[in-house]
Amino acid sequence: MGIDEAYENLRQAIRSMGRVAIAYSGGVDSSFLCRVSHDVLGDNAVAITVVSPMLPVSELEEAKMLAAAIGMQHILLSEKAIDPTVAANPTDRCYRCKKIEFSVIMKSAVDLGIAHVLDGSNQDDLSDYRPGLRALAELGIHSPLRDVGLRKTDIRTLSQKLGLPTWDKPAFACLASRVPYGERITSEKLHRIDDAESYLRGIGLRQVRVRSHKDLARIEVAREERARLCDPKIMDEVAARLKSLGFLYVCMELQGYETGSMNRTIGIPGKSKHG
């Protein structure tokens, strides 16, 4: 199936639902899904964002601006506390977190009289360790991008055609993915990670992760961006800034950024022996 046919199938699938609520993070996939849903259904498409310590401040602000630019209703649901089962950070943390967050989104949708909740999972997600997908299946969440066979590259291409500023936005995951499984997650730890990554993006780096190993910050940047971090002056400035946030040690992952790198403790990068 070609990308144009998949796109038309997506529009038809959304149209058939009548009214939808989109779980909206501000990332490439959910932004594209919001735009298409609004194009097809107008005011019958609503974006819902769960605002929690897991979501970076910058991502929330970008999500709000884009929803306003699209012209769709955007509902913010505040979840200030981290559920204890999620904070314990087991290997199926994502499953537990998604089950809680999407239950909250579904309740909000029901209150609005909306029966269909959509998420932005795409075809590529099936090849990664994504325990959260099980939670979506159990709750009956629709994943129309995945259902019509759209991959991340397809979504970026279509987003660019639609003029969405997110078309080339770097991949992103919730802040909890920066903490090794088994190490307790706290709001303070997530705020520190968010501040560190915000600083690194502020000096011009695009694809950034600050993996937090207790008192050690392990910086991952895209392979093509590593040379910038190897400048002695920048290294000194980065070390000083991250230590001012509370890290005792600061290092760099020599191989560069890799999605799912924390999954090495349970299998191979991006995979799991439990998956």
Helix and strand succession?
HEHEHEHHEHHHHEEHHE
Secondary-structure-based class equals: alpha/beta
Low-confidence sequence ranges: 268-275
- Fill in the CATH topology of the largest domain: Rossmann fold
Strand content: 5-15%
Distance between the termini: 28 Å
- Strand order, main sheet: write it out: 3-2-1-4
Question: Would you mind describing this structure in some detail?
Answer:
With 275 residues, the chain is of the alpha/beta class. The chain folds into 2 domains: 3-168, HUPs (Rossmann fold, 3-Layer(aba) Sandwich); 175-265, GMP Synthetase, Chain A, domain 3 (2-Layer Sandwich), CATH 3.30.300. It has helices spanning 3-17, 28-41, 57-70, 84-87, 93-111, 132-139, 144-147, 152-161, 187-202, 226-229, 232-244, and strands at residues 20-23, 45-51, 73-78, 116-118, 208-213, 216-221, 249-252. Strand 1, helix 2 (28-41) and strand 2 (45-51) form a beta-alpha-beta unit. The two termini are 28 Å apart.
Strand and helix layout:
Elements lengths: L2 H15 L2 E4 L4 H14 L3 E7 L5 H14 L2 E6 L5 H4 L5 H19 L4 E3 L13 H8 L4 H4 L4 H10 L25 H16 L5 E6 L2 E6 L4 H4 L2 H13 L4 E4 L23
Primary descriptors:
Rossmann fold, GMP Synthetase, Chain A, domain 3, four-stranded parallel sheet, 13% strand, globular
